[in-house]
Amino acid sequence: DFGFFVDELPNVAGIKSNRWHKGTDDDRNDEVIKLMKKIEKRKCYYKTIFALYDGKIERVFGGYTYGNIATEKRGNNGFAYDAIFELENFLSLIILVTFSITQFLN
Fold first, then answer.
1. pTM for the full model?
2. How far, in Å, are 7, 8, 69 from residue 2 at the CA level?
3. Which listed residue, 17, 49, 82, 85, has the most CB atoms within 10 A of its CB?
4. Is the pLDDT higher at 89 or at 82?
5. Residues facing 69 on adjacent strands
């Protein structure tokens, strides 16, 4: 599972990334952009957690992908908040990065 967290909007998204605002991913992206309109600090991150169990051993893994909220949506091949997620230390939105690189970063 994953959550999308926006530092300056602690009550938005988070572990309820898909439920905090009714509508589609596009609607939620539009709402985040609207709420961030006058906010200069745009830090955000994806937090991913997953568990594996082989019948004997349970393993839990997690990781973060850090970035910033874009001022507008771009791209059309991602999911959730990818269209507004600018990767930290990259000059690209996560939605514009190839699938293999995205999987490596997550």
1. 0.74
2. 16, 19, 17
3. 85
4. 82
5. 85
Whether the pLDDT of residue 36 is over 80: the answer is: yes
Total number of residues shown for the chain: 106
- β-partners of residue 46 are 4, 65
**3-state SS, one letter per residue, for the chain:** CEEEEECCCCCCEECCCCCCCCCCHHHHHHHHHHHHCCCCCCEEEEEEEEEEECCCCEEEEEEEEEEEECCCCCCCCCCCCHHHEEECCCCCEHHHCCHHHHHHHC
Residue 1 annotated in active site: yes
At residue 17, what are phi and psi to the nearest 5 degrees? -50, -35
